[in-house]
Amino acid sequence: MLFVLILLNLIFITSTNGSWHQLDGIEYYIEYTAVIGVDKAKEGCKGMNAILAVVKSQRIQDLLVKNIDITKLTGQPYSFYIGLSRTSPITLQWSDGTTTDTSVFTYWDCSDDIYDSSKLCVTMGWDGGLNGFKWKIEYCNGKHRSICQRNIATTAKAPTTSTLTTTLLKITSTAIATEQTVTSEVSLVSIQQSTESKPTTNNNFDTLERCS
Questions:
Q1: Which of 18, 49, 178, 193 has the fewest CB atoms within 10 Å, i.e. is most exposed?
Q2: What is the pLDDT of residues 50-62, one digit of tens each?
Q3: What is the CATH number assigned to the segment(s) 20-151?
Q4: What letter would DSSP give residue 22?
Q5: Tens of pLDDT along 144-157?
Q6: Local structure of 108: helix, strand or coil
Q7: Which of 136, 85, 80 is nearest to 113 (CA)?
Q8: 86, β-bridge pairs
Q9: Which of 101-105, 126-130, 155-159 is least confident?
Q10: In 10 A of CB 111, how many CB atoms?
Q11: What percent of the chain is helix, strand and coil (3-state, nearest 5)?
């Protein structure tokens, strides 16, 4: 009976992580540990089945800025790698393959020279101080924190009563085969609500130039 209860807990438990912030089917992770180089930042995201954040709207920008914990920025850098990089002198591409030519949103720091072709990576914020987390074009070997994103996993449907009954019957049969002390009476009590030999059915589980 205890084994059956443990199984039910495993079926219905839902794991959560408070560090992920959700919006429109995407969840974003703000990583406060700084790394040297964008490749390290990408590796960190990949380890969570994620990519560097694609910030294509004011809503996403606002969500991220709202959830950045300033108290964790105890010193430089005050910047985060995001998933935007230069692919040509006039083109920047997001980590999902789209470019700023098709993006309707940018948030450049107007003091920045976004046409500096020696810089290939983009950060949200300036490493030297707080700038409202506007975007900066940077060298790709710089030391920055990072922001990742991934699709929100689809929640599996709750199993029906018949599915649970079948699973429990299989477990009971296995237990009987391996341990003779497990009796059919115990398995029937955990599955049935009456003394009928047949399980009953229960349906109660019911753009480059833009800057700010």
A1: 18
A2: 999 999 999 999 9
A3: 3.10.100.10
A4: E
A5: 999 999 999 854 44
A6: strand
A7: 136
A8: 92
A9: 155-159
A10: 10
A11: 30, 25, 50
